[in-house]
Amino acid sequence: MSQPVLVIGGGVAGSVCALRLRHRGVDVHLVEKERFPRAKVCGCCIGGTGISVLQRVDLRDWILAHGQPIRKWIGSLGGRSVQIPLDSGIAISRERLDTELLARVERSGAVVHSPVSAAVDSISDEHVCVTLKGLDGSVQAQKYSAVVLASGLNASGSKRMLPWTELPHGPFGASFFAKVDQWPTGVIGMACDREGYVGVVRLEDGRVDVAAALNAGSAKLAKGSPKNRILEMLERSHLPIGSIEVTSNVRVTPPLRRSRLSGRGRLVAIGDASGYVEPFTGEGMTWGMMSGYELADLIADSRGELLTLGEQWCLRQRQLLGSRRRTCRLLTSILQNSAARYGAGQLLSRFPRFATPLIAHLNRPPD
What residue segments make up the domains of the chain, in order of their start? Predict the structure, then answer.
């Protein structure tokens, strides 16, 4: 290719994409605006599909050695406690995972710029023009063969080129770390009620990660801060939480539900930058990593003919994630409805194996 490929964002989606591109012999630059390690609003869980993707970039042994294995899901649904066994899963802090991924990108021979922000200026038939800005005030104009937008929910600098097809709306995310003496290792907990849902998991370093999707709106906001709303949800739930002590600042996100045109010409978007459906037990990170890996192969197989990369990626991403996203939309709709929550709680508390096909569907290997 006449110029390298630029990946904007050093999270799991961008890093896996950059690693796979380097494995395929493609010159890569990666820019990340934050200093690592850094915390994120995230449930910090990866399912079986995500582990299989990490295996493809030689990270399976590392994550199994450094993460906390997950073997059970406990839910509080419609006033009932539900327990479902899990065949595979890992809980790991984003500080550790993202830092390791980015370090491997750098060791692979990619050029990493951090902390640096990037803005896409224009797309032509030959290249993409990007402005890079450093914290020291330096500004550079660069040209790239293709640009991969992997900078999360707040992806900026490309709204004109990749507009939202579904404007951000719906619940917002909130998370914090907590000390919960009674919460067991190896277990994901999820409490669902009228306020939204909140997940709880103990990480590899002993901290408990608490992450929620809270219903938005002035009436909801009047009920209190995100932290108080989450604590009240856990207190109402049937999860074996006991006492809980918040040990970090509360981080929040903009509205979660969104989708955008995921490709145009030589510019493409992956992970949360391409859209968001509230996921469960690790699907969010898994989808980002799957997309990064598949996109890297699409770029490498193009042999430099990248004029229609965006259109090809729109089709491939629908094939890759369409049914998975529809499944999570269905689950979200069930959790939002009180009668459906009650019915699901009654059924699964008595017959937890009814959830087995759903878990297998979400954890199936990439196509």
Answer: 5-362
